[in-house]
Amino acid sequence: MRRFLFLLLLALLGAAGPGRAQTWQRDPLLGRLLIHELVQDSAGLLWVAADEGVFRYDGYELVPLPALTSRPGQAGIGYAQALVFDTQQNLWIGSANGLFCLRGRELMRITLPEQGAVPPRIYALVQHPRSHDIWVSYDNHLAYLPAGQLPARPVPSPLRAPATWLRPDGAADMWMVSVLHELGHGPPAGVAAVPVRTYLGELQPVPGTQPLQLVGSNALYEAQPDGELREVRRWLPGPNVNNFSPGTTPGSWQWVVARQLVELTWPAGQRLPTVARHPVAFEREGQLSRQYTVYTDASGLRWSASPGQRGCFKERATATGVDLLPTRPLRSYSTRAISRLPDGRLLVSAYGATLVQAADSPRAPLRPLPLTEAGRPTDAVLLDVATTPAGQVFFAEENHAFGQLDPRTGQVTRLAWTGTSSEFTSSLCLLRDLRGRLWGGTTRGLYLLDAASQQARPYPDAAVARAGQQIQKLAAGPDGILWLATKHGLYRLNPATHALTHYGPAETGPRRFPTDDVLCLWPTPDGRVWAGTRDQGLLLLDPARGVAEHLTTASGLLSNTVGTLLPGGPNELWGGTYAGLLRYNLRTRHLSVLTEEDGLADAEFNRLSAWREADGSLLFGGVGGVCRVRPAPAPASPPRPPRLLLTAYTQHLSALDTTRTTYLAGPAAPALTLAPHDAFLELSLALTDYRAPERARFQYRLRGSGDSRWRGLGTAHVVALQGLPAGEYELEMQGVSARGEAARNLLRVPLRVQALWWRQPWAWLLAAAIVAAGLYVVHRRRLARVRHDERLRSRIAADLHDEVGTLLTRVNMQAELLHQAQPAPSPAFDRLLTNSRAAASTMRDIVWGIDAQADTVGALLDRMRDHLDQTAAPAGLNTHLATDGLPDALPLPPELRQHLYLVFKEAVTNAARHARQATDLWVSLTRAPGQLRLEVRNNGPAAGTSRSGMGLRSMRQRAEALRGTLDAGPEPEDGFRVRLVVPF
Q1: Sign (positive or negative) of CA dihedral 155, 159, 165, 166
Q2: β partners of residue 7
Q3: DSSP H helices in 800-879
Q4: Cα distance between residue 85 and residue 611, in whole Å
Q5: How far apart are CA 259 and CA 877, in angstroms?
Q6: Transmembrane ranges (predicted)?
Q7: C-alpha 921: how far from its chain's center?
Q8: From the CB of residue 135, how many other CB atoms can be counted at a distance below 10 Å?
Q9: Residue 258 pLDDT > 80, yes or no?
Q10: C-alpha pair distances (Å), 272 with each of 201, 264, 428, 711
Q11: pLDDT band at residue 217 under the 50/70/90 scheme
């Protein structure tokens, strides 16, 4: 009783089902303008002539004409009346300030014949499609530009007033209508008046009709031989209105008047046109009705605008009929299962109610079917329904066991589980196969339903039960194969052999499938299967070859979650997603989508909520209720996909410390360059599909960056790049329209990011050259200084040798002579002789140390041999001099050479003086990596240096001067050793 009162209360509230979506919608940007004309260029961009000037429109931004010209200050167009493109895609502009031509980015003012000092107002502008002549109506004159070339030439005309309407005819002729309703017709050589009395209002002649037909806003007329007009077809009551400006396509005229879209079509071979009318609601109630011109763009989208009313509307037209099933008394409902009961009624399960529709009334509202269980009302929500030939209705219900429904009484009974564990099991889906068996999918595997015993028992194969946990959909192929969609992948089961094959991400080869979460299935007659997934879109799987097709948002889907699949015809597949309905032509592989713009109450559809009617119509359920789709026949050739364009780019210019936006004048994408300190680059994209540009999706990738994966932008149409390292890149961009049509072109933009000047190759080469030059200069200076020092040392050595050395030699000789002349030399003469000899020897050592020509190893060894002969040999010592790794030509620095020699000399002198019992003296000069080693060693009992210790101290000082080490001391067994190690 409470349930009945609740439903009665809803009925009394008078809740009505949602109405159909409006056919037209206001364009948010064009709606700001008072529009006179729309044209489309070859790239697909729209151009607008309005009271406010000329604009280019890409679906996202209105770009004023000055921003597209090379010299914005020269525009001065003001009020724009007409636009036309010539064969070279130059834009001709007719305005209140004269005629202009935009060629590339150059805007030129055109002088017309008989033009006065004040620029004329342009009323009409048309290009003839055959001769390509451009006709211009201005003031009370006519002119034409042959094939769009200057100069303009006058056209003689008998019209007394400016022509406001021009329409091509024949090979080069033109029809025209003046503001006084006068008709003219003729070639550029001269126009003749047409004697027709147009007192029935503003009428437009139809080129090529015999007898001449004239179209008014409300009726069609034919001209009689006497000039009178005879009405031959009427579509609206009342007189024709003024300011009547129909839009035309080949074989069709269309306009909006009195809130009616009127379309005339002249079929081939018929004299009179067919008339179609559709209501539109552009103005608010009570507003003065205006006349709207209808323009059809290249994609077939119709636009409508009136110069007397701000706003521009575009038609949300679709070739598919979509109806929302009304309900009483529910206002809205989210559906689950949809099916036909054995008595023909339509059954719809929704959250909060179960609804039915009479079998013989497809337009009747859905009404509640109260459900009871064990004599009490139940809120059961049916997820899936299956019927038997005997008329039994079984269902799966989330969070409960399988059940059976009595469609006459609404009584619900539960099936018993057999052979199941105590763990909770929920029923999720049902299937009746070709043999009549009832299969059930649950959260714990696969079950078989026994209608006779009212039981659900697990499938006998334990492997299938384990593998198929959380079975979300069951489908049977024409060969009896059973397909299982689960949360653990896709399974193929042969019930005859119990063979089970798994397809999933962890598999390899043909069994690899990109996702684990499969929601819905549709087997094809050839043994393959289409699978809708939660995160990977729609896939076609060939059991032997693997995934054959894969459709995602990059292919045109609005969502990668596909919850239902239905065949729409022999070559067509439909599906419900979380963002609209998908329609896929299996033959042409053309994908399209339906959304709210196509009449859907809501674009989010529920899993398993779909049904195909016997008449071919499709039912899909979602959060907005149930919609009926009547698929129209697919066109023989699908519409041409939209084009992806780069319309502008915004760049930060570090040199000027400013940000600049450049609007591109053509479809070609330029090569772009970023300076080293430029902060960012933004590229604006657009698709030439204006139905719902805010829902178009884009993606890009940057080749040459090391990560060339596609990056999705979603519905954002701007690619932003910043912080790129220096290098050469190629930016690739793709787009998909709101209807799921992928752009027919891949947009590529070469991009170069310059390096900082000190990172440029030329900078490194220049730096290397400067360093090399500096090192060369330093080397030359050092070499010059070394040579200067060598010359100076050689000169000093020569002077000492020649002067002082010669003097000391004479002194020594005189001392020798005096010593020999004395019969008994006194000690004074002995000391004189010894000192003269020592002075001469010291002078030779000094000269040798200074002489630059002695800076080699060979010179050092020669000097060492001389000293051994002069000192060690007279002392009775056998001398041994050895070298290793020291060629004679190896240069030695003068300081190192001199200190080595003096240490050697001191060590040898000490050995000769103090090692009285020594018999041998060993001297070695060897070279090791980074070292030079001098060693002087003698045998015999250990002997020290001089008693004063001055010799050892002098050697240590010389070792320190060379940053080396000196070891001096007795050998462990016998003798004495001096070892000097210096870096070399």
Answers
A1: negative
A2: none
A3: 806-821, 827-850, 857-867
A4: 50
A5: 135
A6: 761-778
A7: 86
A8: 25
A9: yes
A10: 20, 9, 60, 55
A11: very high
Q: Pairing relation of β-strands 644-653 and 658-663?
A: antiparallel
Condensed to tens digits (0 to 9), the pLDDT of residues 844-873 reads 667 666 666 677 888 888 888 888 888 887
- 773 phi, psi to nearest 5 deg: -65, -40
Dihedral of alpha carbons 467, 470, 476, 477, sign: negative
Q: How far apart are CA 881 and CA 521, in angstroms?
A: 99
The answer to whether the beta carbons of residues 594 and 583 sit under 8 Å apart is: yes
Q: Tell me the per-residue pLDDT of 676-698, one tens digit each, with 9 for 90 and over.
A: 777 789 999 999 999 889 889 89
Give the pLDDT score at 809: 65
Query: What's the Cα-to-Cα distance from 286 to each of 217, 289, 290, 824, rounded to whole Å?
Result: 21, 9, 12, 159
H-only helix segments in 688-826: 761-799, 806-821
- Compute the average pLDDT of residues 726-746: 89
The class (CATH top level) of 855-984 is alpha beta
Q: Which of 97, 61, 64 is nearest to 79 (CA)?
A: 97
**749 falls in which pLDDT band (50, 70, 90)?**
very high
Residue written as token pair 């809803």: 10
For the chain, count helices (H), then strands (E).
8, 73
Q: Give the mean pLDDT of 59-85.
A: 85
Selection from 207, 45, 216, 228 nearest residue 126 by Cα? 207
Q: Which of 174-188, 236-250, 456-470, 969-983 has the highest mean pLDDT?
A: 174-188
Cis (ω within 30 of 0) for the bond into 329?
A: yes
Q: Is the dihedral of CA 946, 947, 953, 954 positive or negative?
A: negative
CB-neighbour burial class of residue 956 (10 A; exposed 0-12, middle 13-18, buried 19+): middle
Give the CA dihedral 553, 557, 559, 563, nearest 10 degrees: -130
* Amino acid making up residue 834: T
| CATH number attached to the domain at 644-754 | 2.60.40.10
Q: What is the dihedral of CA 283, 286, 287, 293, to 10 degrees?
A: 50
